[in-house]
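Ticket #4471: structure export looks truncated?
Reporter: QA, pipeline team
Priority: medium

Steps to reproduce: submit the single chain below to the structure queue and open the exported record.
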Amino acid sequence: MPRSIRLIGKPGGLGTALENRLSRAGANITTDSDDVDLTIGIASQEKCDLAILPEGMHSENSNLIITLSDVIIPNGGNNWGNGIIIDWVRKVKRGESPEHGSEIRYWVNVRDVADAIATISMSKEELVKTGKMKMCGRRGWEGKYVIEEIKLLWDRYTNAINHSHTKESLSNIPSPVRGIDSGGTSGPDFQSLHHALIDSGGEGWHPLVPLRTSLMEIIAVSYTHLTLPTKA
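Actual output as written to the record:
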């Protein structure tokens, strides 16, 4: 029998990604509150088995709570921290210089998030895992380096679209965006999440989508919403 899962709350881009991932894993997604194996709440205060909440939101009615932040959802809205990086891309595309502040962010692609939540949700064991856990990227990123990478990728993208590449622009291979070495800074505690994924048959918390890929996806998705700059 397929595992029957009910999604409640405010799905948005995260909910769409999660529903698609669960469906691919063989789950039966239902809106019926009767006879379901698992109820997942997304930014919801309703009682559920697994609550996915943004930082600062609390729930006392759920067995397991995953606090989620810094999620990159290329075709999503402004929730889960996504609005910050979307705003950076928009400003770079307008020729502006975004303010980045000094906060370290732990960016993670929505596909990695959906994969992890689906692994826990599709576990054949009963959801006896209780408590709270944190989910975000494993590596910290300074805003100034992320913005530098956005600028570089946007220049290369517009050069490709406008057929304006030069010998110099083609030979200027972008260096990988620089994250903060996790060994030199105290980042989030993923122990509970990591073990929950292993107990559910996964390999622990190891996000796979590079930050550069996420940035390129945002640029590509939002390209049609802004007129390209013309050559002088």
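Status: closed, not a bug. The export was complete when the record was re-opened. Leaving a note from the reviewer for reference: The CA atoms of residues 21 and 47 lie 23 Å apart.
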